[in-house]
């Protein structure tokens, strides 16, 4: 498999937004369930546990990362079935991520927006999000999971080039 990178980088008042988009042949409620219900997120991102609500923190296990670490994820906004915003911190820094869903003609478009202070590390971040969104597609479609080796380092130069434009 040779997936084509789709991410784009947009300057904002606070930094940059890395935006990746996927369109699914699925109703918006099904895609929303795929990105919010723990048994469904376990198929493509990782399971989570805790009492989810805006302003609270849940634990998420990144199932497709080395050593499958658990991390704290703060829920900044949850507006079913259209918007979910979360933040977390790890050794790589602070992460602010937003999912926006729109329905149209039997399909659902999902935008993943990674709000960045600076595009540092985008050569590693971008391929990771492409991989995870294709894992989401595979979980919704019931198709085979993609292989991370098809994304990284193959897409790294594409994403790094977005930061210098």
Automatic annotation (TrEMBL):
It holds the Pfam family AHSA1. InterPro entries: ASHA1/2-like_C (IPR013538), START-like_dom_sf (IPR023393). Gene3D superfamilies: 3.30.530.20. SUPFAM superfamilies: Bet v1-like (SSF55961). This is ATPase. It comes from Streptomyces tsukubensis (strain DSM 42081 / NBRC 108919 / NRRL 18488 / 9993). Residues 25-140 form the Activator of Hsp90 ATPase homologue 1/2-like C-terminal domain. Belongs to the AHA1 family.
């Amino acid at each position: 498999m040779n997936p084509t990178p789709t991410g784009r980088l947009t300057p904002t008042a606070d930094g940059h937004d890395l935006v990746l988009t996927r369109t699914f042949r699925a109703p918006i409620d099904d895609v929303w369930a795929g990105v919010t219900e723990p048994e469904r997120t376990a198929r493509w991102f990782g399971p989570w546990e805790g009492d989810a609500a805006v302003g609270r923190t849940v634990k998420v296990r990144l199932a497709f990362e080395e050593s499958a670490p658990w991390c704290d994820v703060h829920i900044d906004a949850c507006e079913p079935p259209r918007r979910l915003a979360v933040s977390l911190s790890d050794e790589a820094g602070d992460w602010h991520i937003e999912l926006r869903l729109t329905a149209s003609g039997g399909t659902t478009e999902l935008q993943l927006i990674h709000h960045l202070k600076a595009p540092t590390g985008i050569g590693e971040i971008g391929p990771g999000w492409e991989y995870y969104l294709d894992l989401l597609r595979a979980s919704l479609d019931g198709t085979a999971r993609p292989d991370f080796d098809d994304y990284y380092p193959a897409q790294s130069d594409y994403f790094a080039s977005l930061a210098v434009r």
